[in-house]
Amino acid sequence: MDDVKPDDAEAEDRRRELGETDDPVEDELVEAFDATIVEGAERLTRTWRGLIITGLFGGIDVGLGIMAMLAVKEATGSPLLAGMAFGIGLFALRLAHSELFTEDFLVPIQAVVSGHGSWGQLWRLWWVTLVTNLAGGWLFTWLIVVAFPRFHDDLLATAEGYFEGGLTWETAALAVLAGSSITLSTRMAQSTSEDLVTFIISLMGGLLVVGLGMLHGALNSVIVFAAWHAGSSIPFLEWLVWFAWVIPLNMLGGILIITAPRILRTLELARAERANQRPADNR
Q1: pTM for this one?
Q2: How far apart are the first and last CA of the chain?
Q3: C-alpha separations of 80 from 70, 86, 181, 192, 266 in Å
Q4: 109 in Cβ contact with 255 (< 8 Å)
Q5: Model pLDDT, residue 19
Q6: Burial of 106 (0-12, 13-18, 19+ CB in 10 A)
Q7: Which string of DSSP letters, residue by residue, matches 89-108?
Q8: 256-270 per-position pLDDT tens digit
Q9: Is 47 left (phi over 0), alpha (psi -120 to 50) or beta?
Q10: What is the pLDDT of residues 104-116, one digit of tens each?
Q11: Whole-angstrom Cα distance, residue 58 to residue 61?
């Protein structure tokens, strides 16, 4: 804090006088920071069994959203309404405390930066969640395809549409936006304890990511799996190349656009937390 300019120091002193804590940022940010590191530490320290189960259920919840999306698409023909319906799956993810790969950016990274976990634990969380999301989605979408043959045509058309753009700047931008949008939705949902608000945020996330046709490695892959179950001829290698293109861009969007600025905004709190210098009554 020695490099703080006089005007900045005066502003911090004034904020401390007005706020309920002695931390150098707004009370709302302090509350969000504390909630983030607690949740992040819990995710990072899950057992292997816990990680696998929450990741599998994440894929199943995504499948639930796909089922709602297909039903609304069949009834209305509107991709925007269908995308909003997909938000039911995002809502299920949050209520059930399941894991979706792109929800694992801001929360656990903030915990690691604040000294409540390691980068190795973060890497374990990421790859286990991604793999089990795909596995859970594969299994659940098989049930959807068997139960609702009338959805087959929409599934095939939707899945094939992901590969039409190729590997271009446009598809790169769609993947970056998908990662940032899901991460931002997670951030907003964490700021409220009201289920109704969380539901609205979930619908917004579905509208933006699915309704606007953004590219999300895990979500879109589960739809591709459903299309395979329905008889799609999409080559496995084509999906694999697409997946290797989209996932890093999802990470770039979630980490660079949303996570990094948030961490910089609360960097003083993270430094103090890591050094165990935050007063207990500030939390």
Answers
A1: 0.82
A2: 20
A3: 12, 10, 16, 25, 35
A4: yes
A5: 47
A6: buried
A7: HHHHHHHTT---GGGSSHHH
A8: 998 899 888 888 888
A9: beta
A10: 688 889 899 888 8
A11: 5
The span from the CA of 103 to the CA of 3, in Å, is: 34
Residue 102 near residue 23, CB atoms below 8 Å:
no
- Count CB-CB contacts under 10 A for residue 245: 17
Q: Are 106 and 258 in contact (CB under 8 A)?
A: yes
Answer with the residue of higher pLDDT: 175 or 89.
175
d(CA 185, CA 217): 17
- Which pLDDT value is given to residue 278? 56
Handedness of CA 179, 180, 185, 190 (dihedral sign): positive
DSSP annotation of 275: T
Instruction: Evaluate whether 124 touches 283 at the Cβ level (below 8 Å).
Output: no
Distance CA 41, CA 58 (A): 19
The span from the CA of 272 to the CA of 269, in Å, is 5
How is residue 1 written in tokens?
């804090």
Beta carbons of 63 and 144 less than 8 angstroms apart: yes
Please report, for residues 4, 61, 106, the alpha-carbon distance to residue 197 in angstroms, rounded to integers and kept in the order given. Answer: 38, 19, 20
**Token output for 226:** 């459903």
What span, in angstroms and rounded, lies between the C-alpha atoms of 135 and 55? Answer: 9
Residue 274 CA neighbour count, 13 Å, CB half: 14
């199943």: which residue's tokens?
60
